[in-house]
Amino acid sequence: MKKPNDIILKTVTNVAVVIILTFSINLFISGHHNPGGGFIGGLAFVAAIVLLFLVYGIEKVRKNIPLDFKVVAACGVLISVLTGTAGMIFGKPFLYQTFGFVEFPIFGKTELATAVLFDVGVALAVIGTTMTIIMSIGDDR
Amino acid sequence: MSYFYLVLATPFIFALLVPILYKKINPRVHTGWFVLLVPLVLFLYLLSYSAEVYERGAIYLSLPWIPSYDINLTVTIDGLSLIFSLLITGIGFLVVLYSIYYMSKLKEALHNFYVYILLFMGSMLGLVFSDNIFVLYVFWEVTSISSFLLIAYWFEREHSRTGALKSLLITIFGGFAMLAGFILTSIIADTYSIQEMIGKINVIQSHPFFIPAMVLILTGAFTKSAQFPFSIWLPDAMEAPTPISAYLHSATMVKAGIYLVARFTNIYGGVAEWFWLVTGVGFVTLLYGSINAVKQIDLKALLAYSTISQLGLIMCLLGLGSAALYFDAGNEGTVYAIAIFAALFHMVNHSTFKGSLFMLVGIIDHEIGTRDIRKLGGLLHVMPISFLIALTGSLAMAGLPPFNGFLSKELFFTSVLQAAEMPFFAMGTWGHILVAAAWIASVFTFVYCMIVVFKTFFGEQKTDKLKKQAHEAPIGMLIPPLILAGLVIAIFFYPDILSRYFLQPAWEAVLPSFAENPALQIEISQWHGMNREIIMTLGVVAAGIILYKTMKKWSNIYYHYPKVLTLNSIYELIVEEMEVLCLGITKRYMTGSVRDYLTYILGFIILIVGGSVLLLDGISFNMSGNSEVSFFELGLLIAIVITAFTVMFTKTRMASIIAVGGLGFLIVFIFVLFRAPDLALTQIVVETITTVLFLLCFYHLPKFKKEKTSASFKVTNVLISVGIGIVMTIVALSAYGNRLFEPISGFYKNSYEVAGAKNIVNAILVDFRGFDTMLEILVLSMAGLGVYTLIKLRLSRGKENEETK
């Protein structure tokens, strides 16, 4: 088969993937106060990887990201459940979330919330599951 | 939070660690040595509580779990839960020690084994301590599941699998019945706490749902404790490794039903229905188990039937004791209350002697290679220590001195004799029948105890039938049953220590209204003169010896019983018929075609949503408050309609996929117009990913071509699509005009103060409704794994299947 001439696609992808990944992380972090959050952040992250799939093929991506995404999904669920139980140690109900303000040297007054930890779990579960589904279907040739 | 919760959680935490540790240390060190710590530490820790409970009475702890549903991890530490928990951890320790020598570290999947055991131990402890009935129910089912896993431990054997399935079906059936009973009780009493229910006995007992709730709860207890006619799962459960049979299926799990009955005696007891149900079922089980045990040729099956019969004995003692609650308090009731004490006493005794006997059978199986009594014999000289264990265990079970079984058997006879003279609950001639049944069951018990000792250890050695050269077991396998045998004798000589510190508090927990009575100090004595009980025991011994000697002449009777009428064949018939019926129903609607499923789903939506809109008079179009439709909105609408039609009429599949994606992106603009950035963002990413997924599946789809379809198919499609369109339009239009409830959005307005988040949407997701999100990602992950397994399994097995076709 003739090799497709996709030099433009590849060059754009190389730049775009970095931007999408950065944006997805930004989406995740800003979720507490602005639009975003674990679910959207996670999906945007997947979108970046999917772009790599389309351009470079599944095998190449798998070689460069040697992650078992089933494990990622499991870790995500585990993190969410465990951060939920953390509240119980302090005598609070399951899935109790709290927040506080901490003074950091460079960032100044910063808000830290336990909900973000829970959100990390959500993001990982979303990334893991979506990637598992896409990779298994994509593999099935 | 009390440390007690942490201690209760240790088995679960260790269960997580075991597989990791197994990978590290196996096969250098047996994993059991590590697991052994758990029951030991728990036992000592709980022992420290028993002193406190003895001095100060019950302790109550509470930890909120899901407070909005009033589900709390409330713990009751009283005599009853302590005696059970000490049995669980004490026997657990011995069983784990025994299993270290029984389970080979080279051949067996030890990590599974110990994970299941720890899972069981933890849930069983949770069961006996929890005060909230729904928490209790969850632990109850986890014990059923861990029992299922342990019975099917050697899952490559067919018998293990069927036995496991049988036990699961029966116990889970009972569990569901019990759950229904719990729900009824909680509705009646308006509380989930057992302790609070005790305060509302009058409300519960006068309610019309009292009897149904009672029967349902008892069904749960009877299935778990292998009472007639649910007892059939226990003999099949003997396919499990012997340490498991000794632990779950004789000493602990099967006693969960006993625990439940004891716990609820105070709430439900005192009425004739409870008395006759518990006592009657107990007596039938007692007779059924002991008579069937005699005909067994497999030593383990014999012990299984004997366990059934002993559980029946404990159950009927609990039933007899509930008569005490017929009187409010005071002296009239106390004579019957002794039966409860006897039940608890016999339960402890049964755990000791039956545990040692099971371990003995395990030793014989392990060292000789068979459990068939026809092949055994003359082992006395080869295995002298095992013989001692067998002798102690069997004679205790038969109820002879100087073993603890004698004491509790005497108490059993006392209780039955007293109950026979009971002037209420329509006892009448039934009293004599009960006494006769108790006596006959004891005779058969005596006979099978003789079989265990004499058929195995005396007579000729049948070396030619054995695969292995017989020899004594390693010392590690002998120590646990020897400890139990030592206890059997020690309890006979010093019963008062056990009675004062453990049985008395437990008994007071079952019957708190009698606890204040200072005259009630039950003394257990080895000899109370020549009374009726002793005469009954002597009669049992005499009749038992005669029956054993003449066994060859009468044992043929067993084979005359028609096989069709056995409980097992009835069970099999039910299961078979159910399978046929369910398969028939399922095949009707599970056609395997996605189109049909879509028809069901959409048709259902039309019926339910459309129907409720019609019935509730929901159709009202109120356009007065609407704002003007702007130019952008109109433009978007036209674009959406055009794209939708493109999807329908395009000639290639690729174009329609892209059109569907375009439709999604157009909706994003609507979200943007209405200032919902979160929704817009989510829609963008979801649309991107689904389009890619669609393209991936593209490869597998059949060729896009004009299909010839029947007219009825087309008509259904038209009906469904038009119906859905109309229903959705009506709902969307009338949603604005109708307001059935107060909007809940006000609650989330102060998200910044409550959750510290300016983004309400995300605060709802991770904080306000965190539980939903957690379950959602769980479901999502499961769906992902489902897709993975469906595709991967088909890939790897595809060839195999084709070859076998």
What does the model show?
The complex is a heterodimer of chains A (141) and B (805). Chain A is mainly α and 141 residues long. Chain A has one domain. Chain A is 69% helix and 9% strand. Chain A has helices at residues 7-30, 38-56, 58-64, 69-89, 114-139; strands at 99-104, 108-113. The two termini of chain A are 17 Å apart. In chain A, 38% of the residues are buried. Chain B is an all-alpha fold and 805 residues long. Chain B is built from 35 helices and two strands. In chain B, β1 (59-66) and β2 (71-77) form a beta hairpin. In chain B, α14 runs antiparallel to α15. Chain B is elongated, with a radius of gyration of 33 Å. The interface between A and B is large, with 57 and 47 residues.
- Give the structural class of chain A: mainly alpha
Largest sheet strand order of chain B: 1-2
How many beta-strand elements of chain B? 2
Quaternary status = heterodimer
Largest sheet of chain A: 2 strands, antiparallel
Structural class of chain B: mainly alpha
Strand content of chain A: 5-15%
Q: How many helices of chain B?
A: 35
Query: Approximately what portion of the residues of chain B adopt beta-strand conformation?
Result: under 5%
User: Uncertain segments of chain B of ≥5 residues (pLDDT<50)?
Assistant: 801-805
Number of domains as seen in the coordinates of chain A? 1
Helix content of chain A: 55-70%
Computed CA radius of gyration of chain A, to the nearest angstrom: 18 Å
Q: How many whole angstroms does the radius of gyration of chain B measure?
A: 33 Å
- Chain pair with largest interface: A-B, 57 and 47 residues
Mean pLDDT of chain A: 81
